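Take one protein record:
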Amino acid sequence: MTCNYNPTIKTIGSILLTLIWVAISLNSCDNASTSQELNRNDEFKKNIDSLSAYTLNKIKGIPGISIAVVKGDEVIHIESYGFSDIENNVIATTTTPYYIASITKSFNGTLAQILHDENVLDLDASITSYEPINSFKDKTVFEGISLRDLLSHSSGITNGYLVWRNAVSGQYEHQQLIEILENQTGSLDNNKAFKYDNLGYNIFALILQEEFGLNWKNLLKEKIFQPLEMERTSASYDQVIQEKWEVTQPYISIGDSTKPVKVNSRKDEKTMQAAGGLFASIEDISNWLLFNVNKGEFKGKSVYHPDMLGQVHTSYADVNSNGTIFKEVGYGLGWHTSEYKGQKVLYHNGGFLGHTAKISFMPDQKIGVAVFANESFFGDNIADLLTSYTFDYYLDSLESSDLYLEQVENFGKRINEMNKSYANSVAERTNRQSALTLNLSQYEGQYSNEGFGDLSITTENDIVYINMGLLSSNAYYGNEVNTLEVDFSGPGSKQLIEFAISDNTVESLKFKGLEFVRLKEE
């Protein structure tokens, strides 16, 4: 029997063996790469855990921190440390809602683009074509401004009264806001250059309501929170109260070096406003990061087209300034655009008395970080520290972990110095003699400013109390005749109140440089 040699069969066999070898090699390489990545992530989690715990141990004034880190389509680290409520011994968890203030802008900027793509509104149309502005008698100051300008802080207009009532005092009825917008808006005369402000987002909310009969709070829930499974995120303070959410309580690290100091920082339904009006858990915000990092995808599904987020993340205003850790280059629809060690970064901060939040991501590296703290004097420093550590670690630019520990030590020293200074200041203010020329009871009453709202003064046991909407503070005697000092913005903020007196009667007072006329008792 003769066996014929078939070179074709031998060649095919060789190719098959080669392909099998290549496949095995690639699989081995993939497994090795995956293993290395897992080991790297494990090392990072161990390091960030240690750094976070070290921070809370060294800085007694910060009660709680929550952090989430995403990479690609995964949450590679999420953890909470410390307490959300010291007085009631409530531990912070990854589902604990924090007040995240101006990070709300990133949500409403995205909402605006969604509505634009759905042809509900036109981001590039003049706002004079929309109510309530369309009905204003004089629209001059609003001409040539689009919704895109408003949301990228490049409108060239200003209205501190509207912003104050929306965000701080809560003293308004809906129609009042429209009247204040019409009568108190002025020009910045800056050729529509970037100027960060809440105003654009407040006007956006008014236009949604007046022109389209839509509520931004309901829209966020429908368009973003529900698709992204953000079950512990809300723009409704009423919902938070009614459903008894255990939200973080507000604290500062000034006033006592040994523990957090709770502050009178209040929110209600009115002051949960479009420029800063969300409670959110770190777990929910990790979903928001994944959605942004992955260009509209969440859990393998496309929630919105990548082009939509591409428009949101595009810079529409030029900025040239140095932030705390990022180099500012622009602002998009609710996102700062910036640079960090050669990488593009989109981010936003949120801050309010007793609350700090920071969210950022590198679109090219697909790395995102969010840090929350229920403290506002040094919470932002800690958020910057943990954010920069994360980016440095994954950019392979981490020089030494000791440098970060040294920063924490330095923060602790600064807090101790500030507390000493604050204690001296309180002692000096407490021991001041009254420079008021009338009896305390003669200063009591209601005072009003057309734009800013109403301020009330009461006295009890020789202590003067000042109230303005949600704000309240006991007063210190001022150094000058007929003056008081209040701390509306937190301990040591020292806002001056000056009284105008005629014929032994208080006629008015001046606060923030504005005159408040005393109202006659009925």
Q: What stands out?
A: Confidence is low (pLDDT under 50) at residues 1-10, 22-26. Residues 177 and 195 are 22 Å apart (CA to CA). The radius of gyration is 28 Å.
